[in-house]
């Protein structure tokens, strides 16, 4: 790969002595027209990596907040081609910010994995998280993404035991997403001690950066997790803001993201008031 | 024993039936379904497991249930049939496999007993299930009571409304019924919420999936538990007629009663099979016929035929029968469809309603609306077959639960 934006961003953050801030929103929530301003607000607020959710009618791994975001997006008519258009224009405005598509297998694979990987490549997408394709079904999506130079980001969960972890890591790239709670998005909050234990266990098994998500809602929590992980993922809390403010959400999103970033900056030994 | 080239040796080691099936679940669930697979393999080798399963089917469910010759239905269809080359009226002999006589009134209980035994082996004290018509919910609540397990049933809010008697039954049996308000508020959404609950409670909860779908090993184990239907039918028809039937017909929601009837006959090339899909308002309108009107995709843990749009968004299914109102189908049926071993026939709401009444009037049996779809299919094919041919129809459930829906459809005030 010529320019690995994900690796570059994790390296920059490491140098700065802080965790990367990974933020999630659903593409087309509340509308396709409102999404670019929201994505720009994430970047302006200090997000390092953008996870762009591909809406699905049946988001089985998501709690009410993101489920509603999926339905708002589809309800306003979001199509797959709109999502790739959003990605393409994002890439033009933000040449260095890594962009990861996150979603479910059926919308990704309905036209075949090669088509999907090709679209990702053309749009400047850096990585893909496919919630319902475990390593056992890697053939569905993994080979096409790898051939196109797109990272397949795998999930490790509290139920991924030592025996299973090598299978998860085999073929994983970009970063490893640690799902902090056995559950759906936006629900319970993980105990800090459990997160620390899990991150230590994962770090012993891989050199990939470890990002921790699911249930991270506040700047305090982000800061606590940021002290041990390479990245902190915040989704439902941002999606809730979009749910309340709709088309006018961008400034509120930016303010909240800035508070998360400020908390991560404060962890840095050479803390300074800058944005990347 | 696995015979070479047998159609009965699927799925492969990774849970695939041809290109269908598999394990498409969130990582959190993977270790659990791998564990379930291990436990199921061990149980299958354990004569004690089989002995307990068989004993409960006999003494609690009431098996074997009869294979009944529906003479008046057969004769009524012959009356309208053309003459064959021998001058004799056409019209195959119709037998009904009486699953509706099982405890709780449908085939669903066979599978629930099997899965509850597995749950107990895995040390799980809580069970959950999704339900459409409420039959699987009632069956799950029943076995939960029998095994002393805590039980939660996820049911689409729309189905809670149209299947009130079953909702009350589940509550009587001690289950908590959780109305699901997301999406189309029917079976698929109930399954989404059951999966969401499961993923958050994997440590102590067993998910009793109600049909031959979901991630491997569910399609396989549900089929195996339901295959008692086909094994009994096979033995019974050999005893009554001294030969195998020419045709098997069963309704297909997710496909558990159908695969249960079909599977023991799959290697008997002379036995033809029809799976009946719900065509709702007709294939041009709203329907639930995923094979006739869908395409291969991934939902609820398996690759299979789904009703979906060009972007892979799942489209809403419709059937008058809540138990068939699902935009997918079990993966083994997708495979049997693709290799052409089973024919799948769409039957509309109106055709099913007519057959519902016809069976009641002619045979004194009120079928479930799901089963009425199979009767309607038999009404179409029996007159095209010779009088010495034999059809076995799976009467998968009884229609008590449907009387409100049917009265409503017929414009009758109760
Ligand atoms: C009586 C009856 N028949 C058939 C079905 C369809 O399910 P399956 O295709 O799994 O047999 C149901 C589902 O609720 C049912 O209640």
From TrEMBL, chain A:
UniProt-listed Pfam families: Trp_syntA
Keyword Amino-acid biosynthesis tagged: yes
Class in the EC hierarchy, top level: lyase
Any one Gene Ontology molecular-function term assigned to this protein's record: tryptophan synthase activity
SUPFAM superfamilies hit by this protein: Ribulose-phoshate binding barrel
GO-annotated cellular components: cytosol
Entry keyword set: Amino-acid biosynthesis, Aromatic amino acid biosynthesis, Lyase, Tryptophan biosynthesis
Active site residues according to the UniProt entry: 51, 62
EC number(s) stated in the UniProt entry for this protein: 4.2.1.20
Biological function: The alpha subunit is responsible for the aldol cleavage of indoleglycerol phosphate to indole and glyceraldehyde 3-phosphate.
HAMAP family from the UniProt entry: Trp_synth_alpha
Family the entry assigns: Belongs to the TrpA family.
PANTHER family for this protein: TRYPTOPHAN SYNTHASE ALPHA CHAIN, CHLOROPLASTIC, TRYPTOPHAN SYNTHASE, ALPHA CHAIN
Protein name: Tryptophan synthase alpha chain
Record organism: Sphingobium quisquiliarum P25
UniProtKB/TrEMBL annotation, chain B:
Cellular component annotations (GO), alphabetically ordered: cytoplasm
Essential cofactor(s): pyridoxal 5'-phosphate
GO molecular-function terms, A-Z: tryptophan synthase activity
Pfam families listed in its UniProt record: PALP (PF00291)
Documented EC number(s): 4.2.1.20
Annotated Tryptophan synthase beta chain-like PALP domain residues: 88-397
Keyword entries, A-Z: Amino-acid biosynthesis, Aromatic amino acid biosynthesis, Lyase, Pyridoxal phosphate, Tryptophan biosynthesis
Keyword Amino-acid biosynthesis appears in the UniProt entry: yes
Residue numbers bearing the N6-(pyridoxal phosphate)lysine modification: 108
InterPro entries per UniProt: Trp_synth_b_CS (IPR006653), Trp_synth_beta (IPR006654), Trp_synth_beta/beta-like (IPR023026), TrpB-like_PALP (IPR001926), TrpB-like_PALP_sf (IPR036052)
Domain of life: Bacteria
Keyword Amino-acid biosynthesis in annotation: yes
Involved pathway(s): Amino-acid biosynthesis; L-tryptophan biosynthesis; L-tryptophan from chorismate: step 5/5
Catalysed reactions listed for this entry: (1S,2R)-1-C-(indol-3-yl)glycerol 3-phosphate + L-serine = D-glyceraldehyde 3-phosphate + L-tryptophan + H2O
Assembly notes: Tetramer of two alpha and two beta chains.
Reported function: The beta subunit is responsible for the synthesis of L-tryptophan from indole and L-serine.
Record family assignment: Belongs to the TrpB family.
PANTHER family associated with the record: TRYPTOPHAN SYNTHASE (PTHR48077:SF3), TRYPTOPHAN SYNTHASE-RELATED (PTHR48077)
Entry protein name: Tryptophan synthase beta chain
UniProt source species: Sphingobium quisquiliarum P25
